[in-house]
Amino acid sequence: MTAKVLMYCTAVCPFCVRAEQLLNRKGVTAIEKIRVDLDPVQREEMMARTGRRSVPQIFVGDTHVGGFDDLAALDQAGRLDPLLAA
Question: What H or E segment, with its residue span, contains residue 70?
């Protein structure tokens, strides 16, 4: 069982694609994607929840991981797997 993963993203976002690829390699197949380019209200919600404007913004469970660079750094530090397993 892996933790629920939610990703705020847009249609054309190379970092969103890279984040999804990294998560897929970790065995995460179900990623709830919220397209902020289609719904300005969702972008406002993302900014309120994260304090950031850029995508992707990734949540693993209730933990705000951040963007792709943050996700990759977490993986490099060996802290992503335990978070996904929670």
Answer: helix 68-76
Which pTM value belongs to this model? 0.94
Going from N- to C-terminal start, the domains of the chain cover 14-85
Q: At what angle do helices 14-25 and 68-76 cross, to 10 degrees?
A: 30
Residue 82 has pLDDT above 90, yes or no: yes
Q: Which two tokens stand for residue 53?
A: 């404007």
Q: Which uninterrupted H or E stretch holds 8? A: strand 5-9
What would the mean pLDDT of 59-69 be, rounded to a whole number?
Answer: 97
- Report which secondary-structure segment, H or E, holds 6: strand 5-9
- CATH 3.40.640.10 applies to domain 14-85: no
At which residue do the structure tokens 């300005």 appear?
Answer: 40
What are the phi and psi torsion angles at 11 (to 5°)? -65, -50
